[in-house]
Amino acid sequence: MEYILEAFLLLFRWDILLLCLFGALLGVVLGAIPGLSGGIGMILVLPATFAMDPIAAFALLCSIHTGGMSGGYIGSILVGIPGTNSSVATVYDGYEFTKQGDPVRALSVGTVANCIGTIPGVIFAIFLCRIIGAFAVKLGPTELFAFACCGIVMVASLSEGNLLKGLIAAGIGLLIACVGSSPVSGTIRFAFGSYYLYGGFERVNVILGVYAGRTIFLEYVRGERMKKGGPSLKISGFHLSLKDFTSNIGNIIRSFFIGLWIGFLPGLGGSLANVVAYATQKNFSKHPETFGKGNIEGVWAPEVANNASVGGAYIPMVTLGIPGDGPTAYLLMGLIIAGIDPGPLLMRTEPVLVNMIFVATIFSAVYVLLLEIFGMKLFPSILRAPYHFLYPSILAFCFTGAYIAVGNISAIIILIGFTLLGIWFTYANIPHVPFVLAFVLGDILEQNFRSAVNLYPQYGALCFFVRPLSCGIIILLVFLLFWPTIKKAIVRRNTRIKAVFDQVQDDD
Fold it and tell me: What does DSSP assign to residue 208?
């Protein structure tokens, strides 16, 4: 409790509060605009954190993350285009309210649902991190390696239904993480005699290219969003009826725990929580036939769940050093930039910083709530942002940030190279999230693998089966790898059995 109070006092300064307000506003705007996201905002400010105080840096990153996760529902409800992947299911019923001439009801519910999901989710994370953190410090390199591998495989296995391409993305990420000096022996690898590659690829430049550069370039070239323009709606302002809240308390609680649990599982995040919570509520609803036609339950469920996943995703990041989703991977990079080693000892070595992340997220959630309540009339204006000015400006920020991170022109060349790699990922239908996760976790994987092999030299690579927990995780990993094939075989078998059964009945 003393660390939470200390974190609160550190953040309760006028400059930090203004920074949180700016980050929340930036996150909401970027989250609302289709094609952008709060993640892009986090990536854009990462280079600036090199020269920032850690308190200010993490306050800014957390506020952008919170605002971006919340802002996605604006595009979903007003134009039927999700502002972010975490608001896909919100379109199904949210946009129906706009078409029926009542966008205020859906927007008001979404505003409150975001806050209800975020703040309790972070409070749960505060207490769960203490429990899991006490257990995590007892883990050895075998368990940490197994957890990191499992996180990458979980992301890859859910990569748009294509396990092979997800594994290809993860493999490329691990290969690129090997460029430069070895984190264990210091040996230079894959530098090809270039002095600029001795330190490996700067994480900020890789993420700027593969994620931000790729997204902006493709959206600008396609020009699809620019042609559509923004909505010409007039919104009266925030209004939430008591009935809309009281009649959905069970829905809110159920969706909250769905989001918290899915956020906790490495690599899944709000995009899956959003859809799962919507489908679950449809199954529990007394009127499932009204879903997709303007049922307010279909707005509460996905918006509570995707924001609850924020707190859930913090748990593996803080306790194990494994990002729960894309934005927490960028937070993890912020820790590394600040010279802080993520992992099981983080809560012991930097307890104030960890609690500061939680408190900053709560501050930001309150800011987002106030911004969305009092700024609801301006939502249509956000979606009418001039893309032909917006996208080139963001690209300019990307190039500037890349140069600041490295300090020489090679950063620009690397950024362009990874932008092209990201564009190839898109056209080859290779997901970028497994790549980012594998790249960020590359050093952690290698360090723990080498440490485990050195700790049990008599077992070699079989050392991961010596300790029960790491053995169980590796078995789970293998199951995740082969589950799609097993599932298809089960479906084919059931289909054949049903066909034979139907044929027997027809003969009778």
Answer: I
- The Cα–Cα gap between 415 and 395 comes to 11
Q: How many domains in the chain?
A: 2
DSSP line for 314-338: HHHHHHHS--SSHHHHHHHHHHHHT
- CA atoms of 357 and 365, how far apart (whole Å): 12
Residues facing residue 280 across a β-bridge:
none
CA atoms 351, 353, 357, 360: torsion sign: positive
Measured between alpha carbons, how far is 390 from 223 in angstroms, rounded to an integer?
Answer: 13
| Residues 378 and 499 grouped into a single domain | no
The residue behind tokens 């959905």 is 248
Measured distance CA(220)–CA(223) in Å, rounded: 5
Do 265 and 313 lie in one domain? The reply is yes
pLDDT, one tens digit per residue, over 295-330 is 888 888 889 988 888 888 888 888 877 776 778 888
- CA distances (Å), 376 to each of 103, 118, 201, 217, 234, in order? 11, 19, 42, 30, 10
DSSP helix/strand/coil, 181: strand
Note whether 497 and 389 are same-domain residues. no
Beta-bridged to residue 180, according to DSSP, are 189
| Ramachandran sector of residue 342 (left: φ over 0; alpha: ψ -120 to 50; beta: rest) | beta
For residue 170, what is the enclosing H or E element?
Answer: helix 163-177
Please tell me whether residues 420 and 482 are part of one structural domain. Answer: no
Q: How far is Cα of residue 190 from the mean position of the Cα atoms in its chain? A: 30
Q: Are residues 479 and 429 in the same domain?
A: no
Residue 479 placed within a domain: yes
Tell me which residue range forms the domain holding 256: 2-223+238-466
| Residue 93 backbone class (left: φ over 0; alpha: ψ -120 to 50; beta: rest) | alpha
Distance CA 327, CA 128 (A): 20
pTM exceeding the 0.85 threshold for the entire prediction? no
pLDDT in tens, 83-141: 777 787 888 888 888 888 888 888 888 899 999 999 999 999 888 888 877 777 677 88
| CA dihedral of residues 386, 389, 391, 393 (deg, nearest 10) | -140
Query: In sequence order, which residues have a C-beta less than 8 Å from that of residue 475 and are 6 or more positions away?
Result: none
- Helices 103-136 and 351-374 cross at an angle (nearest 10°) of 180
Check residue 230 and report its DSSP letter.
Answer: -
What are the phi and psi torsion angles at 181 (to 5°)?
Answer: -80, 145
Q: Give the DSSP per-residue string, 398-458.
A: HHHHHHHHHSSTHHHHHHHHHHHHHHHHHHTT--SHHHHHHHHHHHHHHHHHHHHHHHSTT
